[in-house]
Amino acid sequence: xxxxxxxxxxxxxxxxxxxxxxxxxxxxxxxxxxxxxxxxxxxxxxxxxxxxxxxxxxxxxxxxxxxxxxxxxxxxxxxxxxxxxxxxxxxxxxxxxxxxxxxxxxxxxxxxxxxxxxxxxxxxxxxxxxxxxxxxxxxxxxxxxxxxxxxxxxxxxxxxxxxxxxxxxxxxxxxxxxxxxxxxxxxxxxxxxxxxxxxxxxxxxxxxxxxxxxxxxxxxxxxxxxxxxxxxxxxxxxxxxxxxxxxxxxxxxxxxxxxxxxxxxxxxxxxxxxxxxxxxxxxxxxxxxxxxxxxxxxxxxxxxxxxxxxxxxxxxxxxxxxxxxxxxxxxxxxxxxxxxxxxxxxxxxxxxxxxxxxxxxxxxxxxxxxxxxxxxxxxxxxxxxxxxxxxxxxxxxxxxxxxxxxxxxxxxxxxxxxxxxxxxxxxxxxxxxxxxxxxxxxxxxxxxxxxxxxxxxxxxxxxxxxxxxxxxxxxxxxxxxxxxxxxxxxxxxxxxxxxxxxxxxxxxxxxxxxxxxxxxxxxxxxxxxxxxxxxxxxxxxxxxxxxxxxxxxxxxxxxx
Length: 560
Prior knowledge:
With 560 residues, the chain is α+β, with helices and mostly antiparallel strands. It has 30 helices and five strands. The protein has a five-stranded antiparallel β-sheet.
């Protein structure tokens, strides 16, 4: 860690640099003092925490640094250190450029002061020359003022602005970094602001051209952004919603026809299907299909897309459900139903068909569809949904065997006690034998806290206090003891004392610190609350004798 302050941008990781720039811009450096020559200490606020940073500069070079945060511990650099380095560099630059003020000088040289007094021709010449040497400034200038250029086709000028921004943000491997995405987003926000202004002023053609340009240029590349923090989707979504806004306001028929033609052509392009954007265009077409001829065109288009999805091995669910909706609105009920029936092997289509049958009161059809779905060996998630549907139908039909069958399946897959409560209210014959068998099935399952808790719940609700005592003793879980221990006081104080003594001592032998001490206090407080004060006092005395060296435990026991 030894580099000049002027080279910060080249020497540190991009994510640390961006984090540091954000912290500095937000004014999060609460204190920056020079403890001794060239050794600086700072307090940097970040996400409701404050970190202490130390850096050693000799004299304009970083010699050493430290920060309390986890990121620095792992990478030997972090955004907090970068923020301090950037601030120190800024202070040094200001110190170098400052000159003694004349005693007559009483004004600060501001940008506004310069602009108010500069010759317009000189300003234009300066901007022209600066734009030639600074690409980012040139792109920002074009994005801000492209709308004022009248001797050029609108679609061309906006596409060129976007192409320049994207080209300037690419790496050699064609990917787009976090910093590059931020540059593109600035341009997109500028163009979207222009487009919104055009729509407000009812210049719908201009607004549509800008939105279309953004979709055509950003749509193909938005998934190439490598950063998790900065994404282009929100700006792309704003462009789509802008077109939606234009359609809602019913512009001239010629423009609506232009939008229709555009949205009809775009989803047929592979690049939009790959990006998952084709359905956006279909939604616009659906809004514009106000006559049967256009509905027929839309159905024909979805048929083409379905064939392409098949060929490209894509998930067809969204297109199928969209086409089903269009067919029904076109009063083609038979075709709509045939479409669903032909694709019941698609899990989401099957679930959709079942839900449709349930909504229309065709419960037997829904039940048969769900059973058919289970026979197709679907994924675990789909099995859960189908079992849940079959359970609901069984409850509606008051089918005792069905309720027990599917409630038990859901219980064993989810370990949620509510399903046992449902079985408990239904109660099959030979109830005790059934519960014993169910407990054996649960006990054979892999270890988990949820499994132990479920066994405890079942034993408690069935008043099997001896078995519950044994379960708690074997689990060695203080959390289970807190939940179920006081509720089995009917086993007698001697056995209850032995249970608490075993589990709490085991817990203290394996856990130290304030949190375990608080948990011990909670357990003893529960005993007091349940009228077992003698037992609680015995344990307090025992812990004071056996763990006198544990200060946090002794402090917690002082509550008694």
